[in-house]
TrEMBL record:
GO terms for molecular function: carbohydrate binding. Transmembrane segments: none annotated. It comes from the Bacteria. Residues 1-24 form the signal peptide. This is TRAP transporter substrate-binding protein. GO terms for cellular component: outer membrane-bounded periplasmic space. One of its GO terms (biological process) is transmembrane transport. It comes from Variovorax terrae. It holds the Pfam family DctP. Keywords: Signal.
Length: 336
């Protein structure tokens, strides 16, 4: 009996030794990860998957500590914290980052992508790599492109179903000049504002409307303070999963590989969850009392015609290199 126990203890000891040495290249790390969306948003499915992969790859040594709903501040200040090396990770829309990487503005051009397949083809191909390089030069490493989704307008004033209906509606836009231009050109009174202030501004009627994907509208409960939803699908602004370059450079290659792999696995889970939820969110917003206005293809074309000057004005600001790269990828994706 005694002998058996000794053997068992010795075996357990060996196991422990093996486990320790198997993950010896990983330091114990807790990574701060922030974002603006609620925990109910599929970004959390992505983070959950990331953590599973990290557990398997690092024996649980790398842990993600996620802060939801802007609890740890907005995406732009977080991105600046990454650049300074005082925070590890943020999941952010590209749009508030155009002051850091102007080329990202291409994703703000209205009606650029028609569907998720086109977005994936651009983001997961050479164009995506191009933006990753620009981001890295600016002090942040993009581990993967996740999905926010196609953006749609909501407001509390009146139904918006055609171009003329935008007139005079006070709409919050992201802190981004192309969005500001687009919504001014459509006739709204556009106001740039950080995401964290939107719910209260809608509630107090400081603004009439905002624009975001169905899933974000529902998980951020905007339906509680918004009556009308217009299926405009006017932009697809990707989520970036960023890591501080300063802190990234302090990781060893195994740690970097584990994090990259986790973010890419997370991407699959996050996109799948987001896409599965998109139509459900629309149905649920309807069930919760929102009045939904579909935008006909003809009306969407009229909107596109109206915002064409936004392209003329902003393509030189974004830079033709980035724009052409994305347009070429799109052409390929469309089989042209
Ligand atoms: C969430 C934001 C948000 C974005 C916005 O952190 O600001 O409207 O669409 O979803 O990235």
């Amino acid at each position: 009996m005694f002998k058996r126990r000794t053997i068992a203890a010795a075996a357990a000891g060996l196991g422990l030794l093996w486990a320790t040495s198997a993950f010896a290249q990983f330091a114990d790390r807790t990574i701060k990860f922030t974002n603006g969306v609620d925990e109910a948003h599929p970004v959390s499915a992505g983070v959950k998957r990331m953590q599973e992969v990290l557990n398997a790859k690092t024996g649980g040594k790398i842990k993600i500590n996620a802060f939801w709903g802007g609890a740890a501040g907005g995406d732009l200040p977080a991105t600046q914290a990454l650049r300074a090396g005082t925070q590890e990770m943020v999941c952010t829309s590209t749009s508030p980052l155009v002051g850091i990487v102007k080329e990202l503005g291409v994703f703000d051009l209205p009606f650029l992508f028609a569907n998720e397949k086109e977005a994936d083809a651009v983001l997961d191909g050479p164009a995506g790599q191009y933006f990753n390089k620009k981001l890295e030069e600016a002090g942040v490493v993009n581990l993967a492109y996740w999905e926010n989704g196609f953006r749609n307008l909501t407001n509390s004033k009146h139904p918006v179903a055609k171009v003329e209906d935008f007139d005079g509606v006070k709409v919050r836009v992201m802190q981004n000049n192309i969005f500001l231009d687009t919504f001014k050109t459509l006739g709204t009174n556009a106001v740039p504002m950080a995401f964290g202030e939107v719910f209260t501004a809608l509630e107090t009627k400081t603004i009439d409307g905002q624009e975001n994907p169905f899933v974000t509208i529902e998980t951020s409960k905007f339906n509680e303070v918004q009556k009308y939803l217009s299926v405009t699908r006017h932009a697809y602004t990707p989520f970036l999963v960023l890591y501080s370059k300063k802190l990234w450079d302090q990781l060893n290659p195994q740690e970097q590989a584990a994090l990259r792999e986790a973010a890419v696995e997370g991407q699959k889970a996050q996109r799948a969850a987001n896409r599965a939820l998109n139509e459900k969110s629309l149905a649920s917003l309807r069930a919760k009392g929102m009045q939904v206005n579909d935008i006909s293809a003809a009306e969407q074309r009229r909107m596109f015609e109206k915002v064409k000057p936004v392209y003329d004005k902003n393509v030189p600001v974004i830079g033709p290199e980035a724009v052409n790269l994305v347009l070429d990828s799109l052409k390929k994706a469309r089989g042209g």
